[in-house]
Specification:
It is a single chain. The protein is α+β, with helices and mostly antiparallel strands. About 45% of the residues lie in helices and about 20% in strands. The chain is built from eight helices and nine strands. The strands form two sheets. It has a six-stranded antiparallel sheet with strand order 6-5-4-9-8-7, sandwiched between helices. Strands 1-3-2 form a three-stranded antiparallel sheet. Helix 4 (about 65-95) runs antiparallel to helix 8. The model has no long low-confidence stretch (mean pLDDT about 90).
């Protein structure tokens, strides 16, 4: 891979300043990086003007904006830990696959997965993408969008029949999203894969849906009693995750 040298200079300057908590002068940075002062000076001035570094006399130190970015990353990692903990709690009760994902355009991007001990389980992978409109996770995520935003997202989209139960038009999708917004939970009934069902809930922050978690189950185990148990548990865990993230100031940004 070819790197962009001007960008690399900025990153190396930031890394160098971060490694010297007492600060570094322009001359010291120039000598350590073997770069001309004339090349480094405008970079330092720009970083200082945007608060990524601060000037203390002739010395440059890491600024508040860089610190905030570090906190944001740590916060997202803490949020994932909270979500994973509650997902494990779900699996311990229902012994089925629990997954977490975010919206990536018209697809679901799967970020976390916890498995049960059932002999027949669901084959899926973290990092995998599936069309949002045929998955429980995807529909839970889309429910956080307005009808108009959904129409714009799917403008010109060609709906494909993954199974005989797949949603095949925009009006049907929007009608389904209305039900999800009303109930707080999304269901998938053999829409992406035959003999596979799913229930999912969105995870929101400040009223905006940021992620979703789901329980996926083979149809032959999806009794009315199991569906009710999974529904109640997901709604309960949704509230717990949102409350824990809010109290611990963990951002749902992934």
């Amino acid at each position: 891979m070819e790197y962009h040298n001007p960008t690399l200079r900025v990153l190396r300057i930031l890394e160098l300043i971060d490694a010297h908590s007492g600060g570094l002068s322009l001359s010291e940075i120039s000598n350590l990086l073997t770069l001309p002062k004339g090349t480094i000076s405008p970079i330092l001035k720009t970083l200082a003007a945007t608060n990524y570094i601060v000037a203390n006399g002739s010395l440059y130190k890491i600024g508040p904006r860089t610190f905030e970015l570090g906190l944001s990353y740590a916060s997202s990692q803490n949020a994932l830990s909270i979500i994973r903990s509650e997902m494990r709690g779900i699996v311990s009760k229902v012994d089925e696959v629990c997954q977490m994902g975010v919206l990536a355009g018209q697809d679901v991007h799967y970020l976390l997965k916890e498995e049960g001990h059932a002999i027949i389980s669901i084959i899926s992978e973290v990092g995998h993408h599936l069309p949002a409109h045929v998955t429980g996770l995807g529909k839970a995520l889309l429910s956080g969008m307005t009808d108009e935003a959904v129409k714009q997202l799917y403008q010109g989209y060609r709906f494909y029949p993954y199974t005989a139960h797949s949603i095949m038009d925009l009006d049907s999708l929007i009608a389904n999203l209305h039900e999800i917004r009303s109930s707080g939970i999304a269901y998938e009934n053999e829409e992406s894969t035959a003999e596979i069902c799913c229930a999912a809930v969105p995870l929101a922050e400040d009223g905006q849906v940021k992620a979703a978690i789901s329980v996926t189950i083979p149809k032959f185990r999806y009794t009315d009693e199991k569906k009710q148990e999974i529904t109640q548990l997901l709604l309960q865990k949704r509230q717990l995750i949102e409350d824990r993230c809010r109290i611990q100031n963990c951002r749902l940004s992934f």
